[in-house]
Amino acid sequence: MKVLLFYIKYRLIIGVVCLIAAVLINIQTGFWPAFILYLIGAISIIGYFLLGPMRLIQSAMEEGNLEEAKRIVEGIKFPGLLIKPVRSVYYTIKGNLAMMDKDLETAEKHMKKSISLGGGQLTKQAEGPNKLQLGMIAMQKGNMKEAESYVRQAIRAGLPDKENNAAAYLQLCSIMMNKREFRAAKDYFRKAKSFKATTPEIVQQIKEIEKYIPRLPG
Question: How would you write the chain as a 3-class SS string?
Fold first, then answer.
């Protein structure tokens, strides 16, 4: 894994060095002895622009190093060259980082860009979580109608794990309480609890709602 991360980090430099070496060998001995270096160089440079350093960003986020993740993301100067599924992931990550900074406008813009790309398995997998994030943004902005629409779309698109599903149904529970549709709120709360989420924020939110939801009519 470390070798792969090293290669991804220095892929452009490796590609350029390989091409320079290939040209020198080609001049001295011919094309075929230099072929493998041409191939490695071309693959490395093309991969740098079409695939980007997404694995590096993922690794930094898994380690909790958000500053490093932001630095790598900002280092992508030509996101338009990324292949569509990777570009979708790029905008998803940009949106998530903006959410962490509580920059709702920027987060919403990037999430919508990610969804608009459409197509591809990676893009499809990100659709549900992205729409859930848009629902949360709409809710924080006080737009309950849009929030409900996005959360329902997220559930239909599919969410990847119990944490996301629990968060989605908690959002619907809160929206229903805001609409004073208390029976629906209770149903969504039971659904949220059924996923047995372990994320501290979600667990705390469930505990808070559990204090007063039995007293709601309906």
Answer: CHHHHHHHHCHHHHHHHHHHHHHHHHHHHCHHHHHHHHHHHHHHHHHHHHCCCHHHHHHHHHCCCHHHHHHHHHCCCCHHHCCHHHHHHHHHHHHHHHHHCCCHHHHHHHHHHHHHHCCCHHHHHHHHHHHHHHHHHHHHCCCHHHHHHHHHHHHHHCCCCHHHHHHHHHHHHHHHHHCCCHHHHHHHHHHHHHCCCCCHHHHHHHHHHHHHHHHCCC
What pTM, to 2 d.p., does this model score?
0.85
Delimit the domains of the chain by residue range: 8-49
pLDDT tens, position by position, 85-118? 899 999 999 999 999 898 999 999 999 999 888 7
